[in-house]
Amino acid sequence: MSEVSTRAWTRPHDWAEVVIGVVAALSPLWLSTDTMTMWTMVILGALIAIDGLVSLAAPGAVYGEGIQVVLGALLFIAPWVMGYTEFNGASWTSWVAGALTIIAGAAAMPMATAAHRTAMPH
C-alpha cells in the first residue's frame, strides 16, 4: 500500500463517502418527500458523512469502513422499510447513494486494514 492511503485526510474512498452522505442528507431540499422520508435521508446521510470524516481523520480505524457498509445497506433498504417508494426521486437517491456507500466502504477496507497494521507495533 502506498503511504498516501495510510495518512489522514488523503483516502479518496472516504472523501467519496463524505460527499455521498452530504448529497443524501441534503437531497430532500430538491426532492419531493414527506416528513418521515426527509428525516430518514437526513439522518442516514449525515451519519454516512460523519463516519466518512472519522475514517479520514483516523485511517487505521477499520471499524469505520464496516459501519459505512452497514449504513449504506440501511440507506439502500430504507425506501421499502420506511415506506417511501412512491417518492421516485427519494427512492432512487437512497438506492444509488446506499449502493455507492457500500461499494466505497468495502473498497476502503483493504486500505484501512493496511493503515491499521502500519500503526500497530509488531
Structural account:
The protein is mostly helical and 122 residues long. The chain is 74% helix and 0% strand. The protein is built from four helices and no strands. It has helices spanning 12-26, 35-57, 62-81, 88-119. α1 runs antiparallel to α4 (88-119) and α2 (35-57) packs antiparallel against α3 (62-81). The mean pLDDT is 89.
What profile does the largest beta sheet have? Answer: none
Report the principal-axis shape. elongated
Mean pLDDT over all positions = 89
Residues in β-strands, percent: under 5%
Low-confidence parts lasting 5 or more residues at pLDDT below 50? none
List keywords for this structure.
mainly alpha; 4 helices; 0% strand; 122 residues
Topology:
Layout: H1 12-26, H2 35-57, H3 62-81, H4 88-119
Helix pairs in contact: 1-2, 1-4, 2-3, 2-4, 3-4
Short description:
The protein has helices spanning 12-26, 35-57, 62-81, 88-119. By secondary structure, it is an all-alpha fold.
